[in-house]
Amino acid sequence: MIAISSLNSITNAKVVLNKAAGSRASIARPSRVMPKVQAQAFHATPYDGFTFEPIREAEISRAMTSRYFKDLDQHAETDVLIVGGGSAGLAAAYELSKHPDVQVTLIEQNVAPGGGAWLGGQLFSAMCIRKPAHKFLDELEIPYEDEGAFVVVRHAALVTSTLLSKVLAAPNVKLFNATAVEDLIVKPDETVPGGKRVAGAVTNWTLVALNHSTQSCMDPNVIESKVMISSTGHDGPMGASGVKRLARLGMIDSVKGMGALNMNEAEGSIVQNTKMVAPGIIMAGMEVSEWSGSNRMGPTFGAMFISGFIAAHLALNDLETQKNGNKNTDEAKEMAQV
Ligand SMILES: Cc1cc2nc3c(=O)[nH]c(=O)nc-3n(C[C@H](O)[C@H](O)[C@H](O)COP(=O)(O)OP(=O)(O)OC[C@H]3O[C@@H](n4cnc5c(N)ncnc54)[C@H](O)[C@@H]3O)c2cc1C
After folding, report:
1. Residue from 241, 286, 301, 309 whose mutation best tests the ligand 1 pocket (most atoms within 8 A of CB)
2. CA of 85 to the centre of ligand 1 (A)
3. Top-tier CATH class for 64-117+157-330
4. CA of 113 to the centre of ligand 1 (A)
5. pTM for this one?
């Protein structure tokens, strides 16, 4: 065993030599020697003396593509399609993951899901969550400091990474990230004469969706859904895409646009307005404010989690209604008139 002090002197000697040599090639050369010295100097690990088994490149390619295309095949028709993997969409997916018989497809245009929930306000770390949404943190076993009316998690990324890990581990949930929803599938609503129902989404790789102006004829893909949760967040290049499209299709009256900041008004209003805004499509999270004109709330996230939770249960109720064949309800008629 080589003592740490002598290891340091060996390392330092190499740095001096490398500095003297002054080229990239000479800096790279000693790294071939280092792992052996380090392995002797530190505690034993399960990887000491390991060797990788040989593989073929094509095997790796097939391992990925076969699974991805199987997923695409299985999710061409889905029970619940969630558009937008921010705090509201992830909360909805988490709640639905408790129902293994319900297939959930989550579409996120970014490579990294999580939306605005990786940080608190103004890029600060802490995430503030109004009670009673702290119960959600209890369920996820995320520690927090209790500030009375709200709780604080030391880093928003702890909440989002924990939530994401639970959602991704659920066998009934599939995330397609780097995939954007470009449009809605709308079909006649069989329950209401002359009515229309959202029946799925039109998707594309986000990088393709962003390049329609540079190339023509880049047709999209489609996913049929029994019910959709739209949680695409604030208005923006892709945000609030669900409500904006519904308005253009005449399936909702208007997009009122998010109201000014008022924390007390905003959170309750978002939760109360989490509903099926047109047949087949439930609105959750900050997209609700774009539809209803609710105030913005600033960096407090309680309403986002509760909104996602409620959206999940509205979706489950709708699936149940469809299963029972009892679609021609007063609720459906009311929604068709919105
Ligand atoms: C720094 C910071 C400042 C904030 N300031 C405010 C504020 O001033 N007011 C306020 O109310 N809240 C604010 N918040 C809070 C936060 O933005 C929201 O409360 C919360 O993130 C909204 O959650 P959401 O799930 O509705 O939307 P988001 O977190 O925005 O998630 C929406 C997700 O949908 C995805 N998406 C969008 N369109 C599509 C599409 N067409 N296809 C596929 N995926 C799509 C997005 O990529 C995103 O991941 C702030 C947050 C941060 C981090």
Report:
1. 286
2. 9
3. alpha beta
4. 11
5. 0.85
